[in-house]
Design a protein that fits this description.
Shape: flat
Structural class: mainly alpha
Helix content: over 70%
Order of helices and strands: HHHH
Number of helices: 4
Number of strands: 0
Strand content: under 5%
Distance between the termini: 61 Å
Radius of gyration: 23 Å
Length: 85
C-alpha cells in the first residue's frame, strides 16, 4: 500500500513550485479543457472547423519543411565535409 501512495508524491529533488503544480496537475488540465470547450461552444462551427483545419495542415507542413532543410544540411556536409573556421 505504501508503494502505491509513494507513486503520487513528487520526487524530493523537485523545486517547491514544481511540487505544488504536480499536485494540482489533473485539475488544472480539466479546468483548461473546460475553458477551451466553453470558448469553442460560443464560436461559430465553421470558424472552429477552419481553425482545426489550419492547425491540422500547418503542423505537417512545418515538419516537412524542417526535414527538408535537415536533409539539405546533411547533403552539404556529406558532399563538402564539415569545415569549421
Amino acid at each position: 500500500m505504501e508503494m502505491i501512495e509513494k507513486n503520487y508524491e513528487p520526487p524530493t529533488e523537485w523545486m517547491d513550485w514544481e511540487k505544488s503544480l504536480y499536485v494540482d496537475y489533473d485539475s488544472n488540465i480539466c479546468e483548461l479543457m473546460g475553458l477551451l470547450q466553453a470558448q469553442l461552444m460560443d464560436t461559430r462551427p465553421s470558424l472552429v472547423l477552419g481553425m482545426v483545419g489550419l492547425i491540422a495542415l500547418s503542423v505537417p507542413t512545418s515538419t516537412v519543411v524542417v526535414l527538408f532543410h535537415l536533409l539539405e544540411l546533411a547533403k552539404g556536409i556529406l558532399a563538402n565535409g564539415l569545415h569549421i573556421t
